């Protein structure tokens, strides 16, 4: 039998099942915790660190997306310190890649952009890296612009976990990490890709997009994911 | 195998050793091997043979004696002689001396503090057993602790002894070993794993390599006791591939133990079974982090995942997994043989036993040392190591890339987990690097940051981007191009990266910067404000015409 | 355990060693790193053929194999030189002059760390820590560890390779 716990989030009383994460329970109670790598329907990896929260009695910050609730837990999701950390993390993403919103297909529909606005990041003080990154437009219908990739791995996860093709993965490590298809070959030549387009729809930025879109035209539709994930769960 | 059989084997091995008047032991550790100790071994062997006294004197391989820089080391038993810097040409003179006076010019004085101030528990066999021979290990009582435990103690009693001993993990964080074993034992599962973390990757640390190379059986016996205590039936030794000699000897040791029925099914006639396999690392420092290590054992990219759940509850393939490092497992046999009570009398109130350090850098005696917890840093640096003539001490770095630099003013703190943390460093796995006046602390901080940046797995943003940003700022400082605003940004970033990174690598990466800023801020300011490097290490291009 | 085995990529006998490694591990996906070690040991580096063979035999997506092969420092996807010189840049070696050795070698060979000379004679590799800190600074020349070495001595060792 699943137990139900009572806890407080930002000093507000909340209840949730023991198999629910802080992120889920907070959302049920109208508290939105920022996140970029997390997406309902995909496995949670706790990588972007935007959703880290403070829990009383725990010296370390915990990612809300992978931390399950507990009886009597006291969670704080929006302290000044957390806000500062989140702004710095967003700044890091802008400094690490080449994000030029004004010429991006996802301008206005970009989760990184809206997260920056939501968190009040109005300028970037960290030095930019200006990395040399490549664009892969070899696929018939889609394209990948690595300049806009934030390595959230949603594409990798949706392709492996939902579509089952596992066309995407990461290569190298550290700041050299990049997303690849198959044997690091042009996407259009991939043997495993089913051209389903799920990766494009879950991508939070303009890194993956449908060809033929002009600036600001690439809207993402990922509502299919929740349904698919639920159906898979029910089939088990 | 039962007690009697083991006793018989051990006695036979002991008799084989005492059948000789003398036993010449040539160190075969990586340090001595790189100084041609194998050739020395062969020349001594040849000398004995040509004189036809092979029946009176044997020559064997032995493990590391610690003082690697004086290698190749050769000892003669039962005469208790230790020779240093032995060359192939020295063989005749050495053999001549067997029944005469020792070779004075090669004799290494074993009464020097480097040897006398040490206390050996982990390294109790002190290079005296042949790493490639299970009989040699048995002759010193090897595997008798395991055999006795299987016959006399319940798993709960083993854990009780361990808890009583107060042993804490030697991999760095210092978690109570007894508590960890208990957690794994209590986890509900029909299958459990025991893993030895031999991915020693701190630059400047080689304690674990030495244990794996010298006493592979002590490690395996420790893992077997652990497996029995927590109820595990399979295990892995995760060894970095950069240690080929350790891999070779562990493989051989596993085969030998299997042959004697000490690994495999129904060990020593009990219902206890344990299968042990080696898994090789492939050059990724982050795999020392336990969840990354699990990913690597499972054949995946070695990226960590958030904890909880801890491996003790959810490890390899989701099964409860006990992960301890090499030195921790090497402590198990002595602890269980002598009892938890005995172990708890050594060391300080909260840090029991001894710690092995790799003492390197600006000291006269570099090498491997084992000291009781609670000894002061001053004793280690000035007495055991000894500063080379003409050098002035500046700092001692412990804890590797997650550790810190401790200045002279704190040299009198005792070596234990809490005290080191209090002065901004970290016990770590045991690297101890002595830094003298000729080193630039900003440059040292940059060195460690470059390490963390290159070893970052790239999964979480603060570590992936933060370490690179910090590295560039440090680089700017060492080039004399930074401003005070850059310094403020560096400190801000250190705070963010320390608290928001996913794993210990990221969380610890700002420590070298934070600790050098704490004790050597003036050096940073000299680079930034005066555009000079006080140690003269950094090349700062002075602006022309200012 | 997988029973259907993938055909060897070619007649080359070295594939059998790789195959034996996989069989020893029951063709389980977690044997990937062991398999890559084995292939690299046999062929000196990992090419696309080796990666595909490992992926097919172990039943792992090819992108994951590539991801693993590029994650770990010891794996190389490019052929290495006839000789390899490893310069240790662990802490002890760094402080005792490792960087000076490296720059001397880079100057003498005209290549940077991690590269191989155009004539495929020498590869220059940097190691994190060889664990021979007592002998700092240390280098490894084709598997032989040389401790307490001067930049000029290191360069001389490389020059020896050129003449032989």
Describe it for me?
The complex is a heterotrimer of chains A (236), B (546) and C (164). With 236 residues, chain A is α+β, with helices and mostly antiparallel strands. Chain A folds into 2 domains: 75 residues, Ubiquitin-like (UB roll) (Roll); 152 residues, Alpha-Beta Plaits, CATH 3.30.70.20. Chain A is built from 6 helices and 10 strands, in the order E-E-H-E-E-E-H-H-E-E-H-E-E-H-E-H. In chain A, the strands form 3 sheets. Chain A has a 5-stranded mixed β-sheet, covered by helices on one side. A 3-stranded antiparallel β-sheet of chain A has the order 6-7-10. Chain A has a two-stranded antiparallel sheet with strand order 8-9. Chain A is globular. The mean pLDDT of chain A is 96. With 546 residues, chain B is α/β, with parallel strands linked by helices. Chain B folds into 4 domains: 93 residues, Glutaredoxin (3-Layer(aba) Sandwich), CATH 3.40.30.10; 204 residues, Rossmann fold (3-Layer(aba) Sandwich), CATH 3.40.50; 83 residues, Ubiquitin-like (UB roll) (Roll), CATH 3.10.20; 90 residues, de novo design (two linked rop proteins) (Up-down Bundle), CATH 1.20.1440. Chain B contains 22 helices and 13 strands. The termini of chain B are far apart. Chain C has 7 helices and 4 strands, in the order ααααβααβββα. Chain C has a 4-stranded mixed β-sheet with strand order 2-1-3-4, covered by helices on one side. Chain C is elongated, with a radius of gyration of 18 Å. In chain C, 46% of the residues are buried. With 164 residues, chain C is an alpha+beta fold. In chain C, a hairpin with a 2-residue loop joins strand 3 and strand 4. Helices cover 45% and strands 11% of the residues of chain C. Chain C has 2 domains: 58 residues; 81 residues, Glutaredoxin, CATH 3.40.30. Chains in contact: A-B, A-C, B-C.
């Amino acid at each position: 039998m699943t137990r139900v716990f009572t806890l407080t989030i930002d000093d507000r009383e909340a209840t949730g099942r023991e198999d629910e994460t802080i992120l889920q329970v907070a959302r049920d109670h109208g508290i939105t915790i920022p996140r970029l790598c997390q997406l309902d329907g995909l496995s949670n990896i706790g990588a972007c660190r935007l959703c880290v929260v403070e829990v009383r009695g725990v010296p370390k910050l915990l990612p809300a997306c992978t931390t399950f609730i507990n009886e009597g837990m006291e969670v704080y999701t929006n302290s000044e310190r957390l806000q500062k950390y989140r702004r710095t993390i967003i700044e890091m993403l802008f400094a690490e890649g080449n994000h030029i919103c004004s010429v991006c297909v996802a301008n206005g529909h970009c989760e990184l952009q809206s997260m920056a606005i939501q968190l009040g990041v109005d300028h970037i003080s960290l030095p930019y890296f200006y990395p040399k990154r490549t664009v892969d437009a070899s696929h018939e219908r889609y394209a990948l612009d690595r300049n806009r990739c934030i390595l959230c791995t949603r594409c990798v996860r949706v392709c492996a976990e939902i579509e089952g093709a596992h066309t995407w993965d990461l290569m190298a490590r550290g700041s050299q990490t990049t997303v690849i298809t198959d044997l690091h070959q042009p996407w259009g030549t991939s043997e495993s890709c089913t051209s389903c387009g799920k990766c494009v729809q879950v991508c939070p930025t303009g890194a993956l997009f449908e060809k033929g879109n002009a600036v600001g035209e690439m809207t993402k539709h990922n509502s299919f994911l929740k349904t698919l994930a639920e159906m898979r769960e029910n089939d088990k | 195998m039962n007690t009697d059989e083991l006793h018989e084997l051990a006695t036979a091995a002991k008799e084989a050793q005492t059948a000789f008047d003398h036993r010449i032991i040539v160190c075969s550790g990586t340090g001595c091997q790189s100084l041609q100790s194998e050739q020395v071994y062969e020349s001594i062997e040849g000398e004995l043979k040509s004189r036809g006294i092979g029946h009176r004197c044997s020559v064997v391989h032995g493990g590391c004696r610690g003082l690697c820089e004086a290698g190749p080391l050769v000892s003669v038993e039962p005469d208790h002689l230790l020779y240093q810097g032995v060359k192939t040409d020295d063989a005749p003179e050495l053999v001549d001396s067997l029944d005469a006076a020792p070779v004075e010019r090669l004799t290494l004085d074993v009464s020097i503090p480097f040897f006398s101030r040490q206390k050996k528990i982990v390294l109790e066999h002190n290079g005296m057993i042949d790493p490639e021979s299970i009989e040699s290990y048995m002759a010193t009582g090897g595997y008798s602790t395991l055999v006795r435990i299987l016959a006399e103690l319940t798993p709960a009693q083993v854990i009780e002894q361990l808890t009583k001993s107060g042993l804490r993990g030697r991999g760095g964080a210092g978690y109570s070993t007894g508590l960890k074993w208990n957690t794994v034992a209590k986890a509900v599962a029909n299958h459990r794993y025991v893993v030895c973390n031999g991915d020693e990757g701190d630059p400047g640390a080689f304690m674990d390599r030495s244990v794996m190379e010298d006493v592979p059986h002590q490690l395996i016996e420790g893992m077997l006791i652990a497996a029995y205590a927590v109820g595990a039936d399979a295990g892995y030794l995760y060894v970095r591939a950069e240690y080929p000699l350790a891999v070779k000897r562990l493989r051989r040791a596993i085969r030998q133990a299997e042959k004697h029925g000490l690994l495999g099914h129904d060990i020593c006639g009990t219902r206890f079974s344990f299968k042990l396999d080696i898994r090789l690392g492939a050059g990724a420092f982050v795999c020392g982090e336990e969840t990354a290590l699990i990913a690597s054992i499972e054949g995946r990219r070695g990226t960590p995942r958030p904890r909880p759940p801890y491996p003790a509850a959810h490890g390899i393939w989701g099964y409860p997994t006990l992960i301890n490092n090499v030195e921790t497992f090497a402590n198990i046999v002595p602890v269980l043989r002598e009892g938890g009570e005995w172990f708890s009398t050594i060391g300080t109130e909260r840090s029991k036993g001894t710690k092995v350090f790799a003492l390197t850098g600006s000291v006269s005696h570099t090498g491997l040392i084992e000291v009781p917890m609670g000894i002061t840093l001053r004793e280690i640096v000035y007495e055991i190591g000894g500063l080379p003539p003409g050098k002035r001490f500046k700092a001692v770095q412990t804890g590797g890339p997650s550790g810190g630099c401790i200045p002279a003013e704190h040299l009198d703190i005792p070596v234990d987990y809490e005290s080191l943390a209090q002065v901004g460093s970290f016990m770590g796995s045991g690297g101890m690097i002595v830094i003298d006046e000729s080193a630039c602390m900003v440059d040292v901080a940059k060195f460690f940051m470059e390490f963390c940046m290159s070893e970052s797995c790239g999964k979480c943003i603060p570590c992936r981007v933060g370490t690179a940003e910090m590295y560039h700022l440090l680089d700017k400082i060492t080039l004399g191009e930074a401003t005070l605003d850059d310094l403020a940004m560096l400190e801000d970033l250190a705070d963010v990266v320390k608290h928001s990174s996913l794993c210990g690598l990221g969380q610890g990466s700002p420590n070298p910067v934070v600790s050098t800023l704490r004790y050597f801020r003036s050096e940073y300011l000299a680079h930034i404000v005066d555009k000079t490097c006080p140690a003269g290490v950094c090349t700062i291009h002075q602006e022309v015409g200012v | 355990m997988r029973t259907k085995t993938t055909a060897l990529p070619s007649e080359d006998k070295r594939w059998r060693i790789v195959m034996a490694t996989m069989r020893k591990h029951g063709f389980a996906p977690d044997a990937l790193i062991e398999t890559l070690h084995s292939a690299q040991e046999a062929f000196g580096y990992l090419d696309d053929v080796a990666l595909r063979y490992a992926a097919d035999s172990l039943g792992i997506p090819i992108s994951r194999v590539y991801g693993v092969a590029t994650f770990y420092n010891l794996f190389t996807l490019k052929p290495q030189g006839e000789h390899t010189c490893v310069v240790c840049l662990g802490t002890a070696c760094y402080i005792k002059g490792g960087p000076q050795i490296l720059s001397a070698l880079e100057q003498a060979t005209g290549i940077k760390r991690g590269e191989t000379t155009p004539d495929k004679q020498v590869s220059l590799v940097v190691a994190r820590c060889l664990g021979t800190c007592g002998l700092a600074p240390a280098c490894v020349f084709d598997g032989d560890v040389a401790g307490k070495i001067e930049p000029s001595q290191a360069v001389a060792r490389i020059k020896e390779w050129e003449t032989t």
